[in-house]
Amino acid sequence: MAFLLAVLCAVCYLPLNNAQGIVEHDRSDPDLFRPRLNAPGVDISTGGSRISRVIPGLLKAQRRAVIYSRQEEEECPYPVPCEGGGCCPADYQCCSTPDCCPLDSNCRPDHPGKCCPKSAETCGGKYCTDPGSACCSSYVCSPGLQCNEVGGGRQCCTPSELHCDDACCPEGSACAPMAGYCSSIRTTTPTRTTTSTSTSTRTSVATSSAPSTTECSPLMNARQLLEPRQRPFPKTCQKSCHPASNEELNVLEITPKAGETDQLAYSMCLGIITRLRNGQIVSGLADGEDILEYNGKGVRNTVADCSEYCQDVSKASGLGGGSFQCDEYPPAVLNPVGGAQTRWCVPRYQNSGTQGPMMSNVVLRCDLKAKDKVLVRIVGGCSKYNFPRNFEEEYSTFGDLFKPVPISPVPTPTLPVLKNTGMHTPRRRATIQLDASNATLRNPNGDSSLTYVAVEIDELADGHYDFEVSFAGGAAIDNVTVLNKYGDQYANVVAPSGSASLSFGINDGSNLPAALIAWTTEAVNVTYAASGTLAANGNTNAGVGVASYVPKGLLFFSMSGMLVGWLYA
User: Fold this and answer.
1) Which residue, 239, 230, 222, 225, is CA-closest to 450?
2) Can you tell which superkingdom this protein's organism belongs to (predicted)?
3) Is 215 exposed, middle or buried (0-12, 13-18, 19+ CB in 10 A)?
4) I need a labelling partner for 217 at 20 to 30 A (CA). Which of 3, 288, 510, 553 fits?
5) Separation CA 95–CA 93 (nearest Å)
6) How would you class 338 by CB atoms within 10 Å of its CB: exposed for 0-12, middle for 13-18, buried for 19 or more?
7) pLDDT tens-digit map of 297-344
């Protein structure tokens, strides 16, 4: 009886973990969240004299050669003489580069075509940004923000935010043990219940959490990223549990790799930063991340005018017609109706030869349907490019705008031998002949998780096409396919042996650059010879496409110029 009375008179409560009520967090804690990204400082350089026309997307060395050649061809109508026979307008000064800057600005020899206002913060001559900006070791923060380089991060925090590992965590939260994340502060409130007339004792705990929780755990990311990296041609969809949207998202990830994806990543970052400054990116995303929505098979919403946009770049590069292609962001298949787009000229092997296969892989592996969300992620972020506040495409170069160190040469994949008969004026010919070859093994992810050989096809007008493809080198081919720069697939053959035949029709009037992709783990020489019968009115009713490989027979499928799903063997 004494024992029972002791129980009846007991006071039960749940003690606090510590004085502040902050509990420990592990990697699976649902209270982990990504903080809002504060935009870094911006380049406020202004354009110099327009004596020299700058071509968008042209590499620095090529761009300079073009400028010098044009400068020599022009007379000097301005009153300020410069060395080398050039001249500048009144109230301008001559720069060491063939540019002119206003007298109230300084020349930027590290960035030809740019002038930095004398009132700007230069951080010892490294940058050109707003007065009052904070100079960090390798970047700048806008006025009123503070540098946060904890854990090797490059963040800009407000005075009230915590400086955490690669994160600026808001007031009322705590640093998380996971880099790039913050942790909500969870408190427990004890409630005491005492009774002497009952044999039961009840203890209740009230909990509160701020600022947010998620329905999926960031720990899921580690498990889901394993499979795509285990073998080439991943058969599973890469997904990410993302607190910013409170849901699991399909992932399109681009790792900038010199000579492979660097200019594609630059083009996408231009669009991401533009959307960020326009308030079109949801809060809680990390640097270089954006959430877009898939439009559905064959549904492309294009606002940017890419018609002939990169002709001058291709000509000036000396690499031949069509060597540069127009890339838009968001990509047309992920762009909402009427959505604004940026555009940039990138080498064709990084557009139809890289973006196309990567987009196709995401659409097929994740079985995307209309309205499905896609998390676009640029590994390493986009703030390093430090795009000017008022970005003008025609006065910007692809270069390292963030670090003014000289750009070292980078390896460039072998460009395919491309012989196009009449491809630049397809409407004037009833038939065309195409042939090209390439043997460069592409590895855009840099970790051999996605490898293939790409042979460029250039733009395809409406009509019917027949491709004969041969493979030399003995490597096994998982799949060969023809697709456009958005990843829309025209024809494919699974596991071809020695050669393959592909036939398809296009009738959507898109005139998109395309590529023939041979998915393989080893370098193999891929050659095609093709003929095309162009539609007289720009359209064709080629309703059925036929794909076959030798000697294993035929594979039939429906074609309407839209994406056709297939599974890797």
Assistant:
1) 230
2) Eukaryota
3) exposed
4) 288
5) 7
6) exposed
7) 889 888 888 888 898 888 888 888 888 999 999 999 998 877 789 999
Which residues are CB-contacts of 390 (< 8 A; sequence separation ≥ 6)? Answer: none
CATH 3.90.76.10 assigned to 417-558: no
Kindly report whether the peptide bond that precedes residue 109 is cis, defined as omega within 30 degrees of 0. Answer: no
SS3 label, residue 364: helix
Cα–Cα separations (whole angstroms), residue 450 to 269, 350, 439, 453: 22, 14, 16, 11
First-to-final CA distance of the chain: 74
HEC readout, 33-85? ECCCCCCECCECCEECCCCCCCCCCCEHHHHHHHHHHHHHHCCCCCCEECHHH
Identity at 197, one-letter amino acid code: T
What's the whole-number mean pLDDT along residues 35-55? Answer: 61
20, amino acid identity: Q
Cβ–Cβ under 8 Å, residues 260 and 338: no
CB 450 within 8 A of CB 444: yes
Question: For residue 219, is it left (φ>0), alpha (ψ between -120 and 50) or beta?
Answer: alpha
Q: What is the pTM of this model?
A: 0.53
